[in-house]
Amino acid sequence: MASFDNAGDVVFVRQSRFPEPDWPQSLVVDDRDNLFVAGGIVEEATGATGQDGVTPIWRTYLTKYDRMGNEVWTIWSGGGGPNWIVDLVTDHFGNVIMAGQYSGGVRLRRTQCPAGP
Fold first, then answer.
1. SS (H, E, C) 12-38
2. Where exactly are the structural domains of the chain?
3. Which of 78, 73, 74 has the alpha carbon at shortest distance from 107?
4. Can you tell me the distance from the alpha carbon of 98 to that of 102, in angstroms, rounded to the nearest whole number?
5. Are 38 and 25 in contact (CB under 8 A)?
6. Each residue's pLDDT tens digit, 19-60
7. Which of 13, 80, 84, 96 has its CA 20 to 30 A from that of 108?
């Protein structure tokens, strides 16, 4: 993810901190210039019952960044089937509403990120 000012100069460049490749699906900026990015991750779980001995674990994530691109928190979930967040909106109260596809129950876990430099 990269942010540019109106002159085209780079403000920040950030990579997700997930060990697996991730696919951002949606991005929204709220009234306070916080940035929310949502998408999916596919992990491989060995020893399970996949065709090649590997079964994918599908996870979704929602990450909040401040206006300078510092990660504030990440919420993620996982499940056995395809799970994807495909759209985000924010309301005037600062809430984030997300929509997508989940297989099975939705279990959300929050990761608080340490303060940046």
1. EECCCCCCCCEEEEEEEECCCCCEEEE
2. 22-112
3. 78
4. 12
5. yes
6. 666 778 889 999 999 999 988 877 766 555 555 556 667 778
7. 13
